[in-house]
């Protein structure tokens, strides 16, 4: 037995084989054992990951801030252009010059490319009360203005303002006119809206109502007070059904007669820009507080 052990120890090949087996066994054993990383290393790795995320955010922040500043500047520039062109009164009376029109249209285009609302037709910002600042020949605003201007001389009647209330897929356009600078009357156009895409909508006219003038006696010119008193007395003598019908205004059914397609090219909490099929823009500014942007509705598009 001693001779065998001596022989094995004396053989270098066998000794090398046993050494290799011993190293392999030890290496395999140590590779199966997992040693936990020290807390310092784990904290360091997390810190590196957070730092990388912050760097990515900071790299995008200047670009986002610059774009938002550009958008706000474009809005202010457009509102100033409206004032420079004579505002609503000059627009409806045809006193806006070609230079003023092209200036306004240029600023409208500049703001449209910065539209912050990708799906304006279903945005909660769309609903609310809006004031017409700019409109073209195919808009309901132009139709209301033409209706008034064609029936009354400019020295007797003028369109003082026009707004629209959008609510629950319906719109009510109200054109307010003044007669003799003291008698106020309204022409109301009701329409129905349907969503046809993220940008496109259809508008169908339902009815028009010409309300009876509302007259404040103290504002009536002295030379007309006699005629005013006679008119009031005549209305009071009418039968109740007729008097009620007159007080509700003259209704003109329009359902199925007129409709149009338009696209919303810009929408935020304060400005709405739409374009008709001819590409003519209408610009409206909000009169009431905007709705929450979190309340976006999931409206199905109609084909």
TrEMBL record:
InterPro entries named in the record: PAP (IPR039633), PAP/fibrillin_dom (IPR006843)
Domain Plastid lipid-associated protein/fibrillin conserved: 96-280
Compartment list: Plastid
A Pfam match: PAP_fibrillin
UniProt superkingdom: Eukaryota
Keywords, ordered alphabetically: Plastid, Transit peptide
Transcription listed as a keyword: no
UniProt family annotation: Belongs to the PAP/fibrillin family.
Record protein name field: Plastid lipid-associated protein/fibrillin conserved domain-containing protein
């Amino acid at each position: 037995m001693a001779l065998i052990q001596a022989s094995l120890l004396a053989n270098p090949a066998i000794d090398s084989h046993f050494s290799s087996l011993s190293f392999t066994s030890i290496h395999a054993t140590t590779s199966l054992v997992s040693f936990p990383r020290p807390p310092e290393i784990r904290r360091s790795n997390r810190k590196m990951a957070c730092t990388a995320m912050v760097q990515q955010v900071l790299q995008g922040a200047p670009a986002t801030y610059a774009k938002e500043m550009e958008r706000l500047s474009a809005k202010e520039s457009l509102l100033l252009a409206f004032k420079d062109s004579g505002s609503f009164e000059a627009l409806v009376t045809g006193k806006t010059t070609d230079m003023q029109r092209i200036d306004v249209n240029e600023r409208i285009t500049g703001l449209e490319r910065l539209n912050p609302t990708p799906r304006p037709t279903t945005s909660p910002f769309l609903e609310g009360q809006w004031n017409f600042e700019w409109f073209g020949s195919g808009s309901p605003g132009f139709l209301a203005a033409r209706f008034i201007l064609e029936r009354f001389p400019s020295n007797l009647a003028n369109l003082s303002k026009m707004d629209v209330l959008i609510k629950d897929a319906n719109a009510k356009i109200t054109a307010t006119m003044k007669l003799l600078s003291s008698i106020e009357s309204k022409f109301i156009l009701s329409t129905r809206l349907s969503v046809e895409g993220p940008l496109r909508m259809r508008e169908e006219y339902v009815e028009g109502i010409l309300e009876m003038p509302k007259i404040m006696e103290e504002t009536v010119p002295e030379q007309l007070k006699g005629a005013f008193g006679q008119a009031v007395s005549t209305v009071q003598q009418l039968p109740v059904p007729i008097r009620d019908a007159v007080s509700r205004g003259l209704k003109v059914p329009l359902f199925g007669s007129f409709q149009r397609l338009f696209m919303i090219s810009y929408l935020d909490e304060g400005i709405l820009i739409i374009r008709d099929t001819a590409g003519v823009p209408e610009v409206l500014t909000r009169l009431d507080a905007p709705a929450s942007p979190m309340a976006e509705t999931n409206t199905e598009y109609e084909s």
